[in-house]
Amino acid sequence: MRAIHTRYRAPFRGTVAAGLLAAALIFVSGDATAQTADPGELGVRAGGGLGGASGARYFGLHWRPWQRSLMETASGWTVLAYGGVQLARVSYQGDRLYKLSAGPGLWIGHRDLPLALGLGTAPTLISGRRLGSRALGGPFQFTSHLALRWQASPGFSLTYRLQHTSNAGLHSDNDGFDIQMLEAAYAY
Hints:
This protein has 1 helix and 10 strands, in the order αββββββββββ. It is mainly beta. It has one domain (about 35-185): Porin. The strands form 2 sheets. An 8-stranded antiparallel beta barrel has the order 1-2-3-4-5-8-9-10. It has a two-stranded antiparallel sheet with strand order 6-7. Strand 6 (about 130) and strand 7 (about 135) form a beta hairpin. The longest helix is centred in the first third of the chain and has 17 residues, at about 15-30. It is elongated and about 50 Å long. This is Acyloxyacyl hydrolase. It comes from Alkalilimnicola ehrlichii (strain ATCC BAA-1101 / DSM 17681 / MLHE-1). Keywords: Signal. It holds the Pfam family PagL.
């Protein structure tokens, strides 16, 4: 006799995930009539996996449609908020998946220095449940990042970014993956 295995599925999980993604997309779109502190950005990212996902390859495009100054102190320290959308391809051990994420972030810097520290998080949709030996659970994930950005010129920046993607315990399979990458961005 075959054993029948059933997985517990939380009620409304898909509805909650869709609602969170819709809220993130609304947040990212911003107010078209508002004055922006800085122009938006378009850029590319490329990198590789860390830890248990070393050997993974990452290539992505990103768009930051808006950025707004939240604070500037008298001594010159600034906090800039932004909304971002990312589309990427990740490959590892012969598998590949695509990911789409949208969410907020912050740049913390000083007006007299070309460097800024960035951090953020974003709800993420992925196209597969596995990436090589990594069991990712379901299609709804979260991506968080920490970054160091160098503003090479007023319209161009280079960024080193560390990023973690996992489902935050929504599924029993939650290996997640870590990526380090370089980003080149052009302000428009």
